[in-house]
Amino acid sequence: MGTAKKWTAADAPDQRGRTAVVTGASSGLGLETATALARAGARVVLAVRDPDRGATAAARITAEVPTADLTVQLLDLSSLTSVRDAAKELHDRCAHIDLLINNAGVMWTGEARTVDGHELQFATNHLGHFALTGRLLDLLRAAPEARVVTVSSYLHRLGRIDLDDLDAERRYSRYRAYAQSKLANLMFAVELQRRLQEAGSGIRSVAAHPGLAGTGLGRDFPAALRLAGPLFAPLFLRSAYDGMLPTLRAATDPGVRGGEFYGPQGLTETRGAPGLVRAGRSARDTGVHRRLWQASEQLTDVLYPL
């Protein structure tokens, strides 16, 4: 028996004529995803918190892909006002959005509150993307075969949605808050697909995770982990390029169906070729999906017109 061919970036189909918005595109997974989509011919909007880093990322992409069609968009996902303003500017710039890659995130930060009063990791990783997607839904509807890809983590398996304390006001653990936010990402992707399907929409909502990839998220790690990084990374971390591949496949593979989850297919899902993976048990509670959605609407004041 032969073995199935491993999916690579070369398998991504032509994206010419399509517009992609990639959050967190100034470094790491987002930069690699934006580069791959630009190489495939898409017009790519780099949605970034720091415009200078965005310009540097655009220059790097252009150096690799001289024909790249790029725009830098200011977006701070930890601020619901910034999300609203960015969505308005994207409406002015784009007639449609074919791909929305909800990639940006923070990991294991110290306890912090956003300008809106929310716990930083939950706000940035989940609430910001929930609000952004809702505010861009009409532009996604204007595209013939739009997709929303939301990047979770294999650590979602350690998460629990505490509906009575989503903002960790009673107690804070950087690890618990991160796992909850990544579980929320996955639940959002699945619940969005359910609602889109019920509404008869052709938009596909898909989830992905990179495995264990070396990215800029480590800047927020505790000091001991940062010091161990040079020893740890070569042994255990895959490159940001390899970590990007499940997202790229979820965004471009014609065979992808809404509600699916893509990640590395190795034994522990920390490395391996990109393909279908199974969500953890905690991510499959549809009752929590719905309650998290309702809470997210209340916390962001964004109602989806579905």
UniProtKB/TrEMBL annotation:
Gene source species: Streptomyces boluensis
Keywords from the UniProt entry: Oxidoreductase
Any one GO MF annotation of this record: oxidoreductase activity
Keyword Oxidoreductase among record annotations: yes
Keyword Cell membrane appears in the UniProt entry: no
Classification via NCBIfam families: PRK05854.1, PRK06197.1
Pfam families xrefs: adh_short (PF00106)
Cited InterPro entries: NAD(P)-bd_dom_sf (IPR036291), SDR_fam (IPR002347)
Protein name stated in the entry: SDR family NAD(P)-dependent oxidoreductase
